[in-house]
Amino acid sequence: MKRVLHGVDLDIEMSAAVSLIGGNGSGKSTLLRCLVRLIEPTSGSVHLYGQDVGSLRGRALGRLRSRVGFVFQRHNLVPRLAALTNVVHGVQARRHGPRTWLQTLAASDDRDEAYSCLEAVGLGDQALQRVDSLSGGQSQRVAIARMLMQRPDIILADEPDASLDPRTGREVMELLNELTRSRGIPIVIVSHRMEHARRYSDRIVGLSGGRIVLDTPARQSDPEALASFFEEAQQ
Amino acid sequence: MTFQGVQVRKVDGVPRFKAPGAISFIVTVLAITLVVWAISGVGLSAERLSRGLPALGGILGRMFPPDLERLPQILWSLMVTFQMALAGAVLGLILAFTLAVLAADGISPHPLVKHAARSLIALFRTVPDLVWALLFVITVGLGPPAGVLAIMVDKIGFAGRFFAEAMEETDKGPREALSALGATRTGIIFSAIVPMAMPSFIATSLFSLEKAVRGSVILGLVGAGGIGVELKVAFDLFAYSTVATIIICIFLLVLIVEQVSNWVRRKLI
Fold it and tell me: What does the alpha-carbon distance between residue A92 and residue A108 come to, in Å, rounded to a whole number?
């Protein structure tokens, strides 16, 4: 077994945009996934909203997860279903049952909310398109709409632009930034692009070899120091 | 047409086949021996076949023209056969899905449940449908209900395994995304896994129905109802022209079911 994180101590305030940066295998994604127990830490503890995440089981874990919106590197949508149905799935954060499985079965309120989430990401006109007919950028937008449908208290975004071309990636990052700022939702975002980290976050935390080696306010960050960090990280 | 600087190289010195190693040679010889042993063991010989051919020709000669006198009764039995196949297949597929959820890796609620469900599916799959039919004829009596139960159990074994494999092979990404937002196991199954596995479910279900229609004909031979009973009686009475009518009707039914099934497959997948 390879150790990915080495005794990381980190406090993240629930009011800001924080970027986690670092090279491949530095532990950024692992750290993010530990927050909602998509990966189980082998030791140590993770606290979110005053709760020890590691001690939660079953419904309690589900309730905690429902407060956290997770945006993945890949959109992770259900390919054969319509964009609207994929967004309706976000309601499963607070309600269960057959009416949350398909947009055709969904309650009118949920359906309307899902549609407005799609409109918020600029895809209102694609609501009934199957997601496997959408482009990569559009699919990632649908995934963000699903996350909004969840009504999260915090957003964790694991390199949401990783599978997109630079221009589409920038558009997705702009969208996330706009949505989180306008709705006052804190966000922790894993990024491998220096310009994104500086532009879209208030605080930058750098990881290397599973340890925190950099922690600085984004506005006061030294571009040269950041550039050399990224250079070293990519070696 | 102009060729300039054209070169053709002949591949020399590259053997067409690689010389087999000692183990491959022994395995090949053993496999051939096994096949020869099996054929000789069942007493199949050219002499016996040549003796049987005139008899087959005689039966075929007596089959034509087909006797249409019992056609209404035959069509009625054919309908019962189709009803048995449809009812058995649908009930079997529903139960197969339930068992498959319990048996699928990464979806089953507990390893013990998974092993129990897998064992049950394996049992249903390995025992032939004719044996199930005999068992149900004894337990629920002669007639279509025994046939429906036999088809149902056979389909649980057949489709259960394919359904479980189809669900296991679905993309883990959407499942993880729903899990991360707090969806329940049932929610993940019906929102992500079932839609992703649907093409495989449809293909397996249609193939199950085709298999059930073909299988239900044979089940009648052991008293489980349907056209098989008519076929057995006709053979027992040496009424080969009636046998011909029954075989043609079965052929048409299977053909229609396969064509409709192909059409549905094309439309839905």
Answer: 15
A24 and A88 belong to one structural domain: no
Q: Which of A119, A137, A152 is the last residue of a domain?
A: A152
Residue A37, chain B, CB below 8 Å: the answer is: no
pLDDT (tens, 9 = 90+) of chain A, 235 residues, equals: 566 666 677 777 766 889 988 888 778 888 888 888 888 888 888 888 888 888 888 888 999 999 999 999 899 999 999 999 999 999 999 999 999 999 999 999 999 999 999 999 999 999 999 999 999 999 999 999 999 999 999 999 998 888 888 888 888 899 889 989 888 899 999 988 888 888 888 888 888 877 787 888 888 777 787 777 777 766 6
Please tell me which of the candidates A65, A80, A81 has its beta carbon nearest to residue B182.
A65
Residues A130, A34: one domain? no
Please give the residue range of the domain that contains residue B210: 71-268
Q: Which of B181, B184, B198 to mutate to test the interface with A (most CBs of A within 10 A)?
A: B181
- A79 and A43 housed in the same domain: no
Minimum-distance CB partner of A101 among B177, B190, B199: B190
> Domain residues for A166?
1-67+155-235
Q: What is the ipTM of this complex?
A: 0.87
Domains in chain B, number: 1
pLDDT computed for residue B2 by the predictor: 58
Q: Is residue B110 part of a domain?
A: yes
Q: Please check whether residues A162 and A234 belong to one and the same domain.
A: yes
In a domain, B15, yes or no: no
Between β-strands A47-48 and A51-52, what pairing exists: parallel, antiparallel or unpaired? Answer: antiparallel
Which chain B residue lies closest to A32 (C-alpha atoms)? B180
Indicate the number of domains in chain A. Answer: 2
CB–CB of A202/A16 below 8 Å?
yes
Rounded to 10 degrees, the C-alpha dihedral A88/A93/A98/A100 comes to: -10
Q: Is A160 on the interface with B (CB under 8 A)?
A: no
What string of DSSP letters covers A103-148?
A: TTTS-HHHHHHHHHHHHHTT-GGGTTSBGGGS-HHHHHHHHHHHHH
Q: Does residue A174 share a domain with residue A161?
A: yes
**Closest alpha carbon to B192 in A100, A114, A122:** A100
Q: For position B228, which CATH number holds? A: 1.10.3720.10
**Residues of chain A found within 8 Å of residue B191, distances taken between Cβ atoms:** 78, 89, 92, 100-101
Query: Which one of A62, A77, A146 has the shortest CB-CB distance to B182?
Result: A62
Q: Which amino acid is at A54?
A: G
Per residue in A132-151, pLDDT (tens digit) is 999 999 999 999 999 999 99
**Same domain? A82 vs A47:** no
Q: Are residues A134 and A159 in the same domain?
A: no
Show residues of chain A in contact with B110, CB under 8 Å: none
Nearest-Cα residue of chain A relative to residue B193: A78
Partners of A78 on chain B (C-beta within 8 Å) are 174, 191-192, 195-196
Distance CA A68, CA A90 (A): 11
* Chain B residues within 8 A of A93 when measuring between CB atoms: 181-183
CB-CB neighbors (< 8 A) of B183 in chain A: 62, 89, 92-93, 96
Chain mean position to CA A7: 23
